[in-house]
Amino acid sequence: MTELTKLVPALDEALTCANVPGASGAALALVRRYAELLDEAVAAERYAKHLGLLVHVVQDYRDSHPRLLPTDRKNLDEMERVITSALAEHSVASDLGPKLLAALTALNLTLPATGTGAKPEAPRVKSVEPLDAERAEAQRLRVVR
Prior knowledge:
mainly alpha, 71% helix
């Protein structure tokens, strides 16, 4: 299995080369947090299915053993909360990619898309006649006032 690139070190490297205004501290903190959460989610994705199975095992065990000691029941409840929390973090992190991209774009830390196959539109240049008509109309309005 290949090792995935972590976002936080890549972000740090990019920021050393970037010219980000000092007033962007909050946006930089947000970008860093998104990167951290995404790095954590990569690991969680590997075992999300297994965590889901563990939640069911804990629930079944608790239901099939009504005479559990209070401490055992408390431990099972805590296990279920921790596992459920890990699964929730994974699902939240899956929504962060577009948000990270938007924040990086707002900080001008992304390159414009290239090679999309779309050709840029030619600048629209008004013909001389409409410009002359607009100038004449502007002149007429000045005279009327």
